[in-house]
Amino acid sequence: MTGFFGDIPKLTYQPDGDSEFAFRHYNPDEIVMGKRLEDHLRFAVAYWHSFAWEGGDPFGGRTFDRPWFGSEMEKAKLKADVAFEMFDLLNVPFFCFHDADVRPEGTSFAETTRNLEEIVDYFGQKMEGSQTRLLWGTANLFTHRRFMSGAATNPDPEVFAWSAATVKTCMDATHRLGGANYVLWGGREGYETLLNTDLKREAEQAGAFLSMVVDYKHKIGFPGTILIEPKPQEPSKHQYDYDVATVYGFLKRFGLENEVKLNIEQGHAILAGHSFEHELALAASLGLLGSIDMNRNDYQSGWDTDQFPDSVPEVARAYYEVLKAGGFTTGGTNFDSKLRRQSLDPEDLILGHAGAMDVCARGLKAAAKLLEDGTLETLRAERYAGWDRPESKALLTSDLASIEARVRDEGINPEPRSGRQERLENLWNRYV
């Protein structure tokens, strides 16, 4: 034991207890819609925000003082020790990481790869004595200055090559650790100005890069899912993976829509001008819903603040779409969330996750009750019931001239019908 978390006890489900260090609503063994709650939610801790982030923001530097901060392999292993202690305290089934979160940067690609392989071996040892598995791995292709103009879309072919090689090592690491997914997040795959940007060339580079990733997945027999995480902006002015619809168009363009799914983040959806549930529902309708990052933004700040979820109604809307789509398969609920830079104590790290897990549990259970009740889906179906008639279905395969003749001959003169939004909102609020 590292002693970092002191005497904090392992958290258990205590709905009527007094301890801060307990779950009030998250009972992993509770059966919801025929499945354990843990298996519905599939919680994951984000290695980067929990253990690698130093507490900085655009106007100020590091506020956290962690004993594992540094570039030595011994500190990387201490970080892993602390991480797995936290996984055990929270009893989370999964974690996620970028390569740069877990290993020191070397002076060459070869040295950096050796560092990653060493820490992956160490992770493997830690996982032998842990219930926590890897939800997904990914490569950090945005922090180092070499990626200032992107990775796959970089105008420099050597950066493209470095990035492809890095992704290969990270896919190998994810596969070795039994990861359920591999994620690509284009943190700087975008542009600041069209004055120095060739959009067509950069899109073709991105398509070629992703095709290589898919080919390598099959070559090594990786059974997990390849995921793309959409984001509209920040740090780039305009990123190519703007939202679900944009990524779907990209996948169709390069014939990859049956090979790749999406990891959708609540905060990114908001930055794109959408609701989280919109992005989830659209992804599900396109067969692309894979996994989620459950973190919110401060709606007054206008940027990606990565805060733990604290709104049961918001979370319930998201899980309603997930459940309606059949639930997660390889995906799960990753807390891509970080403490506030004034929350310095080890206890804060535990309580931030515990509170978020309770909020998600409450939200999913409320969504499940509404879905099981069936009233909302019945009322939705009634709104479109006219399309179930044979003559209505025929409209979709008819032609304009025939339809015009029918409208004229039958004297069709439709009147508007209420969308009943307020009634449905009242129904929703009876469950949440």
UniProtKB/TrEMBL annotation:
Annotated gene: xylA
GO annotation terms (biological process): D-xylose metabolic process
GO CC, one annotated term: cytoplasm
Compartment(s) where it occurs, according to its Swiss-Prot or TrEMBL record: Cytoplasm
Domain of life according to the entry: Bacteria
Binding, Mg(2+) 1: E229, E265, D293, D336
Residue positions of the active site: H98, D101
NCBIfam families: PRK05474.1 (NF003998), xylose_isom_A (TIGR02630)
Known catalytic reactions: alpha-D-xylose = alpha-D-xylulofuranose
Sequence similarity: Belongs to the xylose isomerase family.
Name assigned to this protein: Xylose isomerase
GO molecular function terms listed in the Swiss-Prot or TrEMBL record: magnesium ion binding; xylose isomerase activity
Species the sequence originates in: Alloyangia pacifica
Keywords, ordered alphabetically: Carbohydrate metabolism, Cytoplasm, Isomerase, Magnesium, Metal-binding, Xylose metabolism
InterPro entries from the UniProt entry: Xyl_isomerase-like_sf, Xylose_isom_bac, Xylose_isomerase
Binding note for cofactor: Binds 2 magnesium ions per subunit.
Region forming the signal peptide: none
UniProt feature coiled coil, ranges: none
Cofactors, names only: Mg(2+)
Enzyme class: isomerase
Entry EC no(s): 5.3.1.5
